[in-house]
Design a protein that fits this description.
Elements lengths: L5 H8 L3 H8 L10 H14 L5 H6 L6 E6 L5 H16 L3 E6 L4 H11 L6 E5 L5 H11 L3 E4 L9 E3 L3 H14 L5 E6 L3 H16 L9 E4 L4 H12 L7 E4 L5
Parallel strand pairs: 1-2, 1-3, 3-4, 4-5, 6-7, 6-8
Helix pairs in contact: 1-2, 1-3, 6-7, 8-9
Length: 254
Protein backbone atom coordinates (compact mmCIF):
# COMPACT_ATOMS: atom_id res chain seq x y z
CA UNK A 1 0.00 0.00 0.00
CA UNK A 2 1.45 3.34 -1.07
CA UNK A 3 1.77 6.17 1.48
CA UNK A 4 -0.89 8.91 1.38
CA UNK A 5 -0.23 11.74 -1.05
CA UNK A 6 -1.00 15.43 -1.01
CA UNK A 7 -3.80 14.67 -3.47
CA UNK A 8 -5.36 12.30 -0.91
CA UNK A 9 -5.23 15.02 1.75
CA UNK A 10 -6.85 17.51 -0.64
CA UNK A 11 -9.62 15.04 -1.50
CA UNK A 12 -10.41 14.34 2.18
CA UNK A 13 -10.29 18.03 3.17
CA UNK A 14 -12.37 19.09 0.16
CA UNK A 15 -9.83 21.65 -1.05
CA UNK A 16 -7.36 22.01 -3.91
CA UNK A 17 -3.93 20.39 -3.83
CA UNK A 18 -2.30 23.84 -3.99
CA UNK A 19 -4.20 24.85 -0.84
CA UNK A 20 -2.90 21.77 0.95
CA UNK A 21 0.63 22.62 -0.17
CA UNK A 22 0.38 26.19 1.09
CA UNK A 23 -1.05 25.11 4.45
CA UNK A 24 1.44 22.32 5.09
CA UNK A 25 4.44 24.39 3.96
CA UNK A 26 3.17 27.51 5.74
CA UNK A 27 3.67 29.43 2.50
CA UNK A 28 2.49 33.03 2.08
CA UNK A 29 -0.50 33.48 -0.23
CA UNK A 30 -2.08 36.42 -2.04
CA UNK A 31 -5.51 35.31 -0.79
CA UNK A 32 -5.61 34.41 2.90
CA UNK A 33 -6.61 30.87 3.84
CA UNK A 34 -9.20 30.81 6.60
CA UNK A 35 -8.39 29.21 9.93
CA UNK A 36 -11.24 26.74 9.38
CA UNK A 37 -9.75 25.58 6.07
CA UNK A 38 -6.28 25.28 7.66
CA UNK A 39 -7.70 23.20 10.49
CA UNK A 40 -9.53 20.95 8.01
CA UNK A 41 -6.33 20.36 6.00
CA UNK A 42 -4.25 19.62 9.08
CA UNK A 43 -6.93 17.27 10.42
CA UNK A 44 -7.06 15.38 7.10
CA UNK A 45 -3.27 15.09 6.96
CA UNK A 46 -3.18 13.81 10.54
CA UNK A 47 -5.93 11.25 9.94
CA UNK A 48 -4.24 9.93 6.80
CA UNK A 49 -0.80 9.93 8.40
CA UNK A 50 0.56 12.15 5.65
CA UNK A 51 4.14 13.48 5.97
CA UNK A 52 5.73 15.77 3.35
CA UNK A 53 8.55 14.31 1.26
CA UNK A 54 11.66 16.28 2.30
CA UNK A 55 13.40 15.77 -1.04
CA UNK A 56 10.37 17.03 -2.95
CA UNK A 57 10.30 20.08 -0.68
CA UNK A 58 13.99 20.63 -1.42
CA UNK A 59 13.33 20.60 -5.16
CA UNK A 60 10.81 23.40 -4.60
CA UNK A 61 13.45 25.47 -2.79
CA UNK A 62 12.01 24.95 0.69
CA UNK A 63 13.84 23.68 3.74
CA UNK A 64 13.90 19.89 3.90
CA UNK A 65 14.71 19.38 7.57
CA UNK A 66 17.64 17.15 6.49
CA UNK A 67 21.25 17.67 7.54
CA UNK A 68 24.04 15.73 5.85
CA UNK A 69 26.95 14.32 7.83
CA UNK A 70 30.14 12.92 6.27
CA UNK A 71 32.55 11.33 8.76
CA UNK A 72 36.17 10.34 8.13
CA UNK A 73 36.15 7.13 10.18
CA UNK A 74 32.91 5.96 11.76
CA UNK A 75 34.67 3.43 14.00
CA UNK A 76 36.89 6.07 15.61
CA UNK A 77 35.53 6.29 19.20
CA UNK A 78 35.88 10.08 19.19
CA UNK A 79 33.77 10.52 16.06
CA UNK A 80 31.27 7.85 17.13
CA UNK A 81 30.55 9.84 20.28
CA UNK A 82 30.43 13.11 18.33
CA UNK A 83 27.90 11.65 15.87
CA UNK A 84 25.74 10.52 18.78
CA UNK A 85 25.72 14.01 20.31
CA UNK A 86 25.11 15.81 17.00
CA UNK A 87 22.25 13.43 16.14
CA UNK A 88 20.62 13.92 19.54
CA UNK A 89 20.79 17.72 19.34
CA UNK A 90 19.53 18.07 15.77
CA UNK A 91 16.59 15.75 16.51
CA UNK A 92 15.66 17.97 19.43
CA UNK A 93 15.47 20.80 16.90
CA UNK A 94 13.24 18.88 14.50
CA UNK A 95 15.85 17.81 11.93
CA UNK A 96 16.82 14.41 10.55
CA UNK A 97 20.34 13.32 9.62
CA UNK A 98 21.73 11.58 6.53
CA UNK A 99 25.02 9.87 7.37
CA UNK A 100 27.91 8.96 5.03
CA UNK A 101 31.24 7.26 5.81
CA UNK A 102 34.22 8.62 3.83
CA UNK A 103 36.87 6.13 5.05
CA UNK A 104 39.52 8.90 4.95
CA UNK A 105 39.24 9.01 1.17
CA UNK A 106 38.36 12.19 -0.73
CA UNK A 107 37.05 10.29 -3.80
CA UNK A 108 34.70 8.33 -1.56
CA UNK A 109 33.69 11.51 0.25
CA UNK A 110 32.91 13.21 -3.07
CA UNK A 111 30.88 10.20 -4.17
CA UNK A 112 28.98 10.39 -0.89
CA UNK A 113 28.27 14.07 -1.43
CA UNK A 114 26.69 13.15 -4.76
CA UNK A 115 24.70 10.27 -3.26
CA UNK A 116 23.44 12.46 -0.40
CA UNK A 117 22.73 15.15 -3.03
CA UNK A 118 23.67 18.11 -0.88
CA UNK A 119 21.17 20.36 -2.64
CA UNK A 120 18.49 18.58 -0.63
CA UNK A 121 20.23 19.13 2.72
CA UNK A 122 19.72 22.31 4.70
CA UNK A 123 23.35 22.03 5.83
CA UNK A 124 26.29 19.67 6.09
CA UNK A 125 28.66 18.48 8.83
CA UNK A 126 32.09 17.10 7.96
CA UNK A 127 33.80 15.21 10.79
CA UNK A 128 37.56 14.75 10.47
CA UNK A 129 39.93 15.23 7.59
CA UNK A 130 39.84 13.44 4.29
CA UNK A 131 42.76 13.23 1.86
CA UNK A 132 42.53 16.07 -0.65
CA UNK A 133 40.50 18.31 1.67
CA UNK A 134 40.79 21.44 -0.48
CA UNK A 135 39.25 19.92 -3.62
CA UNK A 136 36.63 18.10 -1.55
CA UNK A 137 35.47 21.22 0.29
CA UNK A 138 35.52 23.34 -2.87
CA UNK A 139 33.21 20.81 -4.52
CA UNK A 140 30.70 20.53 -1.70
CA UNK A 141 30.52 24.30 -1.15
CA UNK A 142 29.35 24.60 -4.77
CA UNK A 143 26.37 22.40 -3.90
CA UNK A 144 25.69 23.58 -0.35
CA UNK A 145 27.48 26.59 1.14
CA UNK A 146 26.22 25.84 4.68
CA UNK A 147 29.04 23.61 5.91
CA UNK A 148 30.55 23.16 9.37
CA UNK A 149 33.73 21.09 9.71
CA UNK A 150 34.81 19.41 12.95
CA UNK A 151 38.46 18.59 13.66
CA UNK A 152 39.38 19.01 10.00
CA UNK A 153 42.95 20.27 10.29
CA UNK A 154 43.78 23.51 8.51
CA UNK A 155 40.73 25.78 8.06
CA UNK A 156 39.32 25.91 4.54
CA UNK A 157 38.21 29.23 3.11
CA UNK A 158 34.51 29.98 3.53
CA UNK A 159 33.86 27.07 5.92
CA UNK A 160 33.28 27.31 9.66
CA UNK A 161 35.62 25.00 11.57
CA UNK A 162 35.20 23.71 15.13
CA UNK A 163 38.42 22.23 16.48
CA UNK A 164 40.52 21.69 19.58
CA UNK A 165 43.65 23.72 20.32
CA UNK A 166 46.20 21.05 19.38
CA UNK A 167 49.17 23.17 20.40
CA UNK A 168 47.87 24.00 23.86
CA UNK A 169 46.77 20.41 24.41
CA UNK A 170 50.27 19.04 23.74
CA UNK A 171 51.87 21.66 25.99
CA UNK A 172 49.49 20.77 28.83
CA UNK A 173 50.13 17.03 28.41
CA UNK A 174 53.91 17.50 28.40
CA UNK A 175 53.77 19.89 31.37
CA UNK A 176 51.98 17.12 33.23
CA UNK A 177 54.56 14.46 32.33
CA UNK A 178 57.51 16.73 33.11
CA UNK A 179 55.84 17.64 36.41
CA UNK A 180 55.82 13.92 37.29
CA UNK A 181 59.57 13.87 36.76
CA UNK A 182 59.75 12.37 33.26
CA UNK A 183 62.56 13.48 30.96
CA UNK A 184 62.73 10.56 28.52
CA UNK A 185 59.45 11.13 26.66
CA UNK A 186 58.55 9.49 23.35
CA UNK A 187 55.83 10.29 20.80
CA UNK A 188 53.69 7.92 18.70
CA UNK A 189 52.64 9.63 15.49
CA UNK A 190 49.59 8.03 13.92
CA UNK A 191 49.19 8.50 10.20
CA UNK A 192 48.83 11.39 7.76
CA UNK A 193 46.19 13.46 9.56
CA UNK A 194 46.97 17.19 9.85
CA UNK A 195 46.16 17.36 13.55
CA UNK A 196 48.61 14.53 14.22
CA UNK A 197 51.37 16.31 12.30
CA UNK A 198 50.64 19.53 14.17
CA UNK A 199 50.88 17.70 17.50
CA UNK A 200 54.18 16.12 16.49
CA UNK A 201 55.64 19.52 15.56
CA UNK A 202 54.47 20.94 18.89
CA UNK A 203 55.99 17.98 20.76
CA UNK A 204 59.38 18.60 19.12
CA UNK A 205 59.13 22.33 19.81
CA UNK A 206 58.32 21.78 23.50
CA UNK A 207 61.14 19.29 24.00
CA UNK A 208 63.63 21.68 22.36
CA UNK A 209 62.45 24.63 24.47
CA UNK A 210 62.89 22.59 27.65
CA UNK A 211 66.28 21.18 26.61
CA UNK A 212 64.95 17.62 26.66
CA UNK A 213 66.78 15.14 24.47
CA UNK A 214 64.82 13.43 21.68
CA UNK A 215 66.60 10.36 20.33
CA UNK A 216 65.45 9.62 16.77
CA UNK A 217 63.97 6.28 17.84
CA UNK A 218 61.73 8.11 20.36
CA UNK A 219 59.50 9.22 17.48
CA UNK A 220 57.47 6.14 16.53
CA UNK A 221 55.75 6.64 13.17
CA UNK A 222 52.86 4.29 12.40
CA UNK A 223 50.57 4.23 9.38
CA UNK A 224 47.35 3.18 11.09
CA UNK A 225 45.58 5.87 13.10
CA UNK A 226 44.01 3.30 15.43
CA UNK A 227 44.71 0.91 18.31
CA UNK A 228 46.74 -1.42 16.09
CA UNK A 229 49.01 1.48 15.17
CA UNK A 230 49.37 2.39 18.84
CA UNK A 231 50.26 -1.22 19.65
CA UNK A 232 52.97 -1.37 16.99
CA UNK A 233 54.35 2.02 18.02
CA UNK A 234 54.55 1.06 21.70
CA UNK A 235 56.11 -2.30 20.85
CA UNK A 236 58.87 -0.52 18.90
CA UNK A 237 59.51 1.92 21.76
CA UNK A 238 59.76 -0.88 24.33
CA UNK A 239 62.33 -2.65 22.15
CA UNK A 240 64.77 0.29 22.39
CA UNK A 241 67.82 -0.50 24.61
CA UNK A 242 67.15 2.71 26.56
CA UNK A 243 63.33 2.98 26.39
CA UNK A 244 61.36 6.09 27.36
CA UNK A 245 59.72 6.42 30.75
CA UNK A 246 56.65 8.14 29.29
CA UNK A 247 54.88 8.10 25.94
CA UNK A 248 52.61 10.72 24.38
CA UNK A 249 50.25 9.31 21.73
CA UNK A 250 49.06 11.48 18.87
CA UNK A 251 45.38 10.85 19.63
CA UNK A 252 43.00 8.74 21.69
CA UNK A 253 42.58 6.03 19.04
CA UNK A 254 46.34 5.45 18.92
Amino acid sequence: MSPPSMKDVARRAGVSQSTVSRVLNDAPTAIAISSATQARVLKAARELGYTPNPLARGLRGSRTGLLGLIVREIDDPFFAQLIDVITMIIRERGYSIVLGHARSNSDEALALSDILDLRHCDGLFVLGEVRGDQAFFARIVESNPTVVAFCSGDPVGGISVVDVDNRKGIYLALDYLVGLGHRKIAFIEGGWIGATLQRRETFLEYMLQHSLEIPQEYIAQVEANDASGGYRGMKALLAIPDPPTAVLASDDAV
